[in-house]
TrEMBL record:
One GO BP annotation of this record: D-serine biosynthetic process
Protease listed as a keyword: no
Family according to the record: Belongs to the serine/threonine dehydratase family.
Cofactor(s) it depends on: Mn(2+); Ca(2+); Mg(2+); pyridoxal 5'-phosphate
Name under which the protein is recorded: Tryptophan synthase beta chain-like PALP domain-containing protein
Keyword Nucleotide-binding carried by entry: no
A GO MF term: ATP binding
Keywords: Lyase, Magnesium, Pyridoxal phosphate
Tryptophan synthase beta chain-like PALP domain span: 32-146
Name of one Pfam family that matches: PALP
Species: Salpingoeca rosetta (strain ATCC 50818 / BSB-021)
Length: 254
């Protein structure tokens, strides 16, 4: 008789474990930067705890995505010469850079509203860019067409871990979560002098939020915040485009 499936054994079946992460770390050694971990007295005061900011905005390619891209490309055989993805920027940039470092050709499908700074970087890393409309079906269709051009026998299978299927669930329920990431992004620019992009403001906004404070209470005294990317289009700085996003909470400290 087979053993009953425990929560832990299920998790192990679906997720990468520490050993996989360590193997990946080994694989990409010397290729990804070791980014600094910074602190800020202002941010500590605002959050009511000690925050540690992992500066992946200073990572190669401007975001944490180079780690996964390098790991994935390194695991491909020498016979694989081309890699394809669709991305509005960071993953495309990361894959383009990883491919150029490892001697492969990257084909990146980018939506027509992708930030100029990301498009320029993808081109700068030598990738072949295909532009498409900014809808998910258009992105998938364009990527499929590029893939079929590279290998007509290709089959595409999308996957994510069953116990971390956030993408599947949000697409299924059509939920749109709104987060105040722009004021957090501005606060980091202003007080920490770090250029981060809006998505990196999400983790900062969480660390400063009342919900998180209620959850963490006195239990979590030290919290790591990953500043996941710094690829901000300088012609479209959010609080310049929309002054409503210029409000910060710095007035609560002095
Ligand atoms: C800078 C940055 N932060 C966060 C994310 C979200 O990453 P994930 O989809 O792996 O949670 C992305 C990916 O699109 C990103 O580029």
């Amino acid at each position: 008789m087979s053993q009953p499936e425990t929560k832990k054994s299920k998790q192990q079946a679906y997720c990468v474990g520490l050993k996989d992460v360590q193997a990946a770390q080994d694989r990409i050694k010397g290729l990804a930067h070791r980014t600094p971990l910074l602190t800020s007295t202002t941010m500590d005061k605002l959050s009511g705890r000690q925050l540690f900011f992992k500066c992946e905005n200073l990572q190669r390619g401007g975001s944490f995505k180079i780690r996964g891209a390098l790991n994935a490309v390194k695991m491909l055989g020498d016979d694989v010469k081309d890699v394809v993805t669709h991305s509005s920027g960071n993953h495309g940039q990361a894959l383009a850079l990883a491919a150029s470092l490892l001697g492969k050709t990257a084909h990146i499908v980018m939506p027509d509203n992708a930030p100029t700074v990301k498009r320029a970087a993808v081109a700068g890393y030598g990738a072949k860019i295909t532009t498409c409309e900014s809808t998910q079906p258009a992105r998938e269709a364009a990527a499929q067409a590029v893939l079929e051009g590279v290998n007509p026998k290709i089959e595409i299978i999308a996957a994510e871990p069953a116990n971390a299927d956030d993408c599947y669930r949000s697409m299924a329920s059509d939920t749109h979560v709104r987060l105040d990431k722009y004021p957090a992004q501005r606060l980091v620019w202003e007080r920490m002098k770090l250029v981060i992009e809006p998505s990196a403001g999400v983790s900062v906004a969480v660390a400063l939020s009342d919900d998180f404070k209620a959850y963490a209470g006195d239990r979590l005294k030290k919290v790591a915040v990953v500043l996941c990317g710094g690829n901000q289009d300088l012609d479209k700085i959010p609080w310049v485009v929309n002054p409503a996003w210029s409000t910060t909470t710095t007035t609560t400290t002095s």
